[in-house]
Amino acid sequence: MHIAVAGNIGSGKSTLTKMLAKHYGWEPRFEAVDRNPYLEDYYRDIHRWSFNLEIYFLKERFRDLIAISQSEHTIIQDRTIFEGVYVFMENNRSMGNLSDRDYATYMELFEQMISMVRLPDLLIYLRASVPHLVNNIQQRGRDYEQSMQLEYLQNLNERYDDFIYHKYQGRVMTIEKDNLDFLHNPKDLAQIIDRIDATLFGLFPNQ
């Protein structure tokens, strides 16, 4: 089984992935953010490094999908290849950071990749407001994230909603994150677990 956790920068994806992996005994898989050799360059000069960054992420996410499809264990994944395309890549394109030629090349590559894999069994969408995201980003203190503009985060939020509610064809569970603290409040985590149990195993009524 393949479970994925989706959400904007600072929404709590990695934290929830770790906690659910521990609770269910699932194998966690995290995207290689800190190992991306283009990330710091990208935040310094988005226009110059967007294509390089997106191709690297696409390559890594496709490699993850192949590994997930071959695994005999249940995998819970932090961010999917679909978000990389329909949220981050589309946002970079709309900002004028990719040429039509680069975009066409990228999308052709993505379409060939995606024909070889299937959708996750469940996509958990952590939906959060921009102030909530900013607070989390500031708390974790990654230097390359501190210069992000509010408009950038808002644009990503809008694209996430469009992706989840209008483009994604798989099963989705939306979790409104602003009023939850599943890291420090066991009741909040239990509420999420109850919903997952209901969706995947039919143990409780859906709420």
Describe this structure in words.
Helix 3 runs antiparallel to helix 4, helix 3 runs parallel beside helix 5 and helix 4 crosses helix 7. Helix content is 57%, strand content 12%. The chain has helices at 13-24, 39-44, 46-70, 81-94, 100-114, 130-140, 150-167, 186-201; strands at residues 2-7, 27-30, 75-78, 122-127, 172-176. Strands 2-3-1-4-5 form a 5-stranded parallel sheet, with helices on both faces. The model has no long low-confidence stretch (mean pLDDT 89). It contains 8 helices and 5 strands. Residues 3-197 form the Deoxynucleoside kinase domain.
Total number of beta strands: 5
Biggest β-sheet: count, sense, barrel? Answer: 5 strands, parallel
Q: Give helix and strand order, one letter per element, not per position.
A: EHEHHEHHEHHEH
CATH class: Alpha Beta
Helix content bin: 55-70%
List keywords for this structure.
207 residues, alpha/beta, Rossmann fold
Short description:
The protein has helices at about 15-25, 40-45, 45-70, 80-95, 100-115, 130-140, 150-165, 185-200; strands spanning about 1-5, 25-30, 75-80, 120-125, 170-175. The chain has about 210 residues and is an alpha/beta fold.
Lay out the secondary structure:
Blueprint: E1 2-7, H1 13-24, E2 27-30, H2 39-44, H3 46-70, E3 75-78, H4 81-94, H5 100-114, E4 122-127, H6 130-140, H7 150-167, E5 172-176, H8 186-201
Parallel strand pairs: 1-3, 1-4, 2-3, 4-5
Helix pairs in contact: 3-4, 3-5, 4-7
